[in-house]
Structure formats: C-alpha cells, structure tokens
Design a protein that fits this description.
Blueprint lengths: L2 H29 L2 H18 L3 H11 L8 H41 L3 H4 L2 E2 L5 E2 L6
Antiparallel strand pairs: 1-2
Helix pairs in contact: 1-2, 1-3, 1-4
Length: 138
C-alpha cells in the first residue's frame, strides 16, 4: 500500500473516531451527564489536535508528486474522507448550538432568580394567608 493510501486510511479512521466522539458528546449533552461529557471533551480535543497536524497538506503534496501514478481507489477513499469530515463538522456545530441553547436557558433562569424585587422577596404569608413584610404589611 502506498504512503498516500496509508495516510488516507489513518485520517479516515481518526475522522470516524471523531464522529463517534461527537455523537457520544451529543448523547451526554442530552442526558446532562457532566462527568461523561468531560471525558468525551478530552477525547474530542485530542482527536481535533491530531487532525490538525498537517496531514491533509502532506496528502495534497503527495498527490501532486504522484499525479501521473495515483493509486486505484484514491477517489473513493478521498470522497469517503471528505464526507466524514463534513459530517463531523455538522455534528460539531450541532453540539455547539445545543450547548449554547442550554447555556442561554440557564442564564435566563439565573437572571429571573436574581431580578426579583427586594421588597417582594421579604414578603411572607402569615397564618391567615395575607402578605406581611416591609412592602406589603396588612
């Protein structure tokens, strides 16, 4: 097997692992499994770092060097890698969007809690069911 095909196979395997990690991340986000999410984040970061090591550029250089003698099956493998990479990008964006939505809901809930008026928060119901307190003494 040529060096080019070896690099493509390695990249395809890593992108597939990233896809799996992103799917697991999505499931952990839905289930709100923070411990699981933390472990998945570490794996995802390692995979993203590994994929950003310049191998795509090396493959492009190898293709340019072997343009007249490209291995059979290269277009199919390249298409598979391209589709997997696009799917991973879509999953990454989806997960980011879900996290952003959950954070927005949490911020709104916290804001609602902290924006209560101070006088109202000091009002209490007495035994007769009437409000008592600084702003609403009966």
């Amino acid at each position: 097997m040529s060096e080019l095909m070896t690099h493509l196979d390695e990249l395809t395997a890593e992108v597939a692992a990233l896809e799996s990690a992103l799917q697991a991340e999505f499931e952990a986000i839905k289930a709100q499994g923070l411990d699981q999410l933390d472990a998945i984040q570490k794996t995802k970061e390692q995979l993203l770092h590994a994929l950003s090591d310049g191998r795509f550029e090396r493959i492009a250089a190898l293709v340019q060097q072997q343009v007249d003698d490209l291995p059979s099956g290269l277009p199919e493998k390249w298409q598979q890698l391209k589709e997997s990479t696009q799917a991973s990008q879509t999953h990454l964006k989806r997960n980011e969007l879900v996290i952003q939505r959950k954070l927005a809901v949490l911020r709104e809930a916290l804001q609602a809690i902290y924006q209560t008026n101070a006088p109202q928060s000091q009002q209490l119901y007495n035994r007769t069911g009437k409000l008592t307190g600084q702003s609403g003494q009966s």
